[in-house]
Amino acid sequence: MQTAVIVFPASNCDRDAAVALETHTGKAPHMIWHKDTSIPDDVRFVVVPGGFSYGDYLRSGAIAAQSPVIKDLKQKAEAGLPVLGICNGFQILTEAGMLPGALMRNAGQKFVCKISRLRLANAQTRFTKLYDAKHEIDIPVAHHDGNYFADDDTLRRIEGSGQVVFRYVDNPNGSRGDIAGIINQAGNVLGMMPHPERAIDPLHGGTDGSNIFKSILGSL
Amino acid sequence: MAGTSKSDDITLDVIAEHGISGAEYKIILDRLGREPNLTELGIFSVMWSEHCSYKSSRRHLGKFLTTGKRVIQGPGENAGVIDIDDGDAIIFKMESHNHPSYIEPYQGAATGVGGIMRDVFTMGARPIALLNALRFGEPDHPKTKSLVDGVIAGIGGYGNCVGVPTVGGETNFHAGYNGNILVNAMCVGLARADNVFYSAAKGVGNPIFYVGSKTGRDGIHGATMASAEFDDDSEEKRPTVQVGDPFTEKLLIEACLELMATDAIIAIQDMGAAGLTSSSIEMADKGGVGVALNLDKVPQRETGMTAYEMMLSESQERMLMVIQPGKEQLAFDVFEKWGLDVAEIGTTTKTGRLVLTHGGKTVCDIPIAPLADDAPNLNRPHTPTAPRDVIEPSDIIEPQDYNDALVRVMTDPDMTSKRWIWEQYDRHVMADTMDSSQSGGDAAIIRIHGTNKAIAVTTDCTPRYCYADPYEGGKQVVAESWRNLTAVGADPIAITDCLNFGNPERPEIMGQFVGCIDGMNEACRAFEYPVVSGNVSLYNETNGVAIPPTPAVGGVGLIPDLSLIKTLKGAKAGDTLIMIGE
Amino acid sequence: MIARVYVGLKPGVLDPQGRTIASSLNDLGFEEVQDATQGKVIELKLANGERDLVKARVKEMCEKLLANTVIESYRIELDETEE
Amino acid sequence: MIARVYVGLKPGVLDPQGRTIASSLNDLGFEEVQDATQGKVIELKLANGERDLVKARVKEMCEKLLANTVIESYRIELDETEE
Ligand SMILES: Nc1ncnc2c1ncn2[C@@H]1O[C@H](COP(=O)(O)OP(=O)(O)O)[C@@H](O)[C@H]1O
């Protein structure tokens, strides 16, 4: 199955995302440069990887969200193409308006890198259906701007429609509602701060991230 | 600072300001056959500074064991190179950024990390791990908190952004560093053994390319600052500090590695201390060629820069390379794709001279060989450290309350958890970190991407031992490094070092320096654990008080099979504890 | 022409950075500090043009890139003297 | 009393953020942008006091915490109306 990873200047988890995709599909993903204007038609799943696109200058994800390739990504996502944004990828998707809310500086002001325990707030999405809803999973976080914010109305709306997918058990960044990951209304665009691609190999210390890739790839 | 002035501006004061002694000035006059102009004097001054010429330390560093069956390149290049089988090579080095970090902790530490990464990817390696060795003053000293906060944030800010995991390090607090902290950063990279890049500019008539950020007036005289001690006025006199741009560094890494996969590069060198001066002269000297540069072509951030300023600027994130004729367009295409400034600024020549033109005029024309060959190589007097009284175990009074003693030991700032530090570093990016600071193991473990083998890395030093007895302390530093690697299942291969000491003009400090080197070297030889790269930082003192002698070392070992990894994970209640050794 | 764009968090959005500044100032003995907020100023050097047109363009820059209006509000100042 | 502190990089100090902002504005079609710099504004809510004294205190806060004068310069504005 053909997948793709979008590469921005100073993406730095692009290779990790590619390894995760290849591990789960047996096929190397397309690496799409941000200046390309279209995503090839054979691509069935896109990862917007972590990193520090444009050095996180101005606001994390803000400049990358204006890249040429994002226009096509938006259109294809509206037509149903599944997209996973991880960490900086999540920031880019919110900045591009593909997901609601915004990611602000961590409440503690510091970069935080640790294993975070997550609760499945919605185990019924195309990205999470292989998880046991009662189960808690361990996935590393590594970010400076992971403090999820949405205004009260938006928050009520996404909570009400099951768009909150992951919650921190022990909130590392001040996110409202302990939110670690959300999905769009149509259920095909997921953004999350934790890094599932860093938890797919027993040597990483755990494989709790694998089911996200298996779930979504299995749904295609 | 004036530009390319006439030689009658070279007064005794100007010569002294440039740290050039009377004897050194005589050599310059002799080699040039005339008086130098200010630009030329500036170039001699930085090339002959402690920082670039290692004038106090060179003869002693020469004693180190630097060869071994896995050594591909020992000291003398940007970093050391070792063989880890299957055509893979590890390239690594450690460097200090002590003085800048004291003045501007965030940017000082950040640019320290940036600089050491450039040393490693310059040689063709993708950086795969960062480590550090930090020394701060007492926790309740008024400056300590903000220094610690700034340094840790700066290390994380740069490494995290570039996307290289910071996997280990060490941190100690001691009154001896109240006025002079130590920030030593180490970078480890992975390359193919048959695709390592060196700095010798071979061949005549080849184009010289400048790549990276534009040149500004940053850090002019930084190299001479690193070679003079602090006093209370330093904070007033301080020159501008450089600001790091990790975003550009990341682009530079990707662009250089992309071009290195072709055959376009003949030689490459990063512009570190003394930027354009030392990079061009080192490349020319090693290649046995001359260099002609047109400074009008240097990408500039500010207007009206003089030749002097351009040659001495320490702007970060810049590289100099000699390109294969005919491959110029390829080089332009790659660097422009990554959005970097790039310019062809000169050519290699057969004159053996450094010739600079600016505004249509020749502003410097000096022979290159003397800059290296005639660099001072001092034999500074050194008095051995007097032996301290031996403390017998029986001299120590037994604690009344062992619980209290344990609490005191465990709450010592050196002993407490460093979680608050390493949680600010991305330890997992690149997804090959098998073990890092988090587990509290003796060394961090990084898998070689896509293989079943790994390397183990560690930084170590116990200054208190070196202070008590430099020779024994030096031995211990290397032995600790060796033990930390073996303890995780690795075969130790080689070390890099960063020798932090006080003012070498004082015989007792030179005594510590020589004692530590001799001790380290003895251990290196006993273990066949060679030194392949390193850095010396002298003049670490404030108001005449030196830091404790701190020869930090960074060790690298190979774990040929991932199943051989030993970590602290998996220990359970009821397991048997065994103590080995005396 | 110089345009100065002030970008700050909207009221109601928690500003931990401001709070940290206030409490560190208090810790340093500046007890008179009751609250602090932090925003950014982006100063743009622009080709000259008709004031209203320039302002409209800068507004567009803010909406498109310089501010994230989910959390931030902005204010524009034009300054012709510094040309 | 409100004090506004503007902190920016000194002229000549590399401003990677500003440069990146300028070039992405250009990429977005705002060709009139010739240069950009980014600084911060810290707004402090302070207990009332004699103007000169307050200003002196804020200056001390800048020197001690709010700016690093090695690379940054600052400017203070006092605003009594917003009390
Ligand atoms: N500055 C630092 N950066 C990264 N990791 C650090 C740093 N300081 C300490 N650590 C990590 O914290 C752990 C404990 O460090 P330390 O107290 O020095 O222990 P040890 O004496 O066993 O080396 C180690 O795994 C080390 O790598």
Briefly characterize the structure.
Chain A is an alpha/beta fold. Chain A contains five helices and eleven strands, in the order E-H-E-E-H-E-H-E-E-E-E-H-E-E-E-H. Chain A has a single domain, classed as Class I glutamine amidotransferase (GATase) domain (Rossmann fold).
List keywords for this structure.
heterotetramer; A: 220 residues; alpha/beta; Rossmann fold; nine-stranded mixed beta sheet; two-stranded antiparallel ribbon; 5 helices; 22% helix; 25% strand; globular; B: 582 residues; alpha+beta; seven-stranded mixed beta sheet; six-stranded mixed beta sheet; 21 strands; 33% helix; binds adenosine-5'-diphosphate; Phosphoribosylformylglycinamidine synthase subunit PurS (chains C, D); PurS (chains C, D); ATP binding (chains C, D); ligase (chains C, D); PurS-like_sf (chains C, D)
Describe the structure.
The complex is a heterotetramer, with one copy of chain A (220 residues), one copy of chain B (582 residues) and two copies of chain C (83 residues). Chain A has 220 residues and is an alpha/beta fold. Chain A has helices at residues 14-25, 68-78, 88-95, 152-160, 210-218; strands at 3-7, 30-33, 45-48, 83-86, 102-104, 112-120, 136-143, 147-149, 164-168, 179-183, 189-192. Chain A has a single domain, classed as Class I glutamine amidotransferase (GATase) domain (Rossmann fold, 3-Layer(aba) Sandwich). In chain A, α1 (14-25) crosses α5. The longest helix of chain A is centred in the first third of the chain and has 12 residues, at 14-25. The mean pLDDT of chain A is 97. Chain B has 582 residues and is α+β, with helices and mostly antiparallel strands. In chain B, the strands form four sheets. A seven-stranded mixed beta sheet of chain B has the order 8-10-7-11-9-12-13. A six-stranded mixed beta sheet of chain B has the order 1-2-3-6-4-5. A six-stranded mixed beta sheet of chain B has the order 14-15-16-21-17-18. In chain B, a hairpin with a 6-residue loop joins β1 and β2 (80-83). In chain B, α7 (105-121) packs parallel to α8. The radius of gyration of chain B is 24 Å and the shape is globular. The termini of chain B are far apart. Chain C is α+β, with helices and mostly antiparallel strands and 83 residues long. Chain C has a single domain, classed as Mth169, Chain: A, CATH 3.30.1280. Chain C contains two helices and three strands; from the N terminus they run βαβαβ. Chain C has helices at residues 16-27, 51-66, and strands at 2-9, 33-46, 72-79. The radius of gyration of chain C is 16 Å and the shape is elongated. Chains in contact: A-B, A-C, A-D, B-D, C-D. The B-D interface holds B 103-104, 107, 213, 216-218, 238, 240-243, 245, 247-248, 301-302, 315-316, 339 and D 9-10, 12-16, 20, 23, 68, 70-71. β2 of chain C pairs antiparallel with β2 of chain D. Adenosine-5'-diphosphate (ADP) is lined by residues 132, 134, 166, 168-171, 418, 421-422, 437, 440 of chain B.
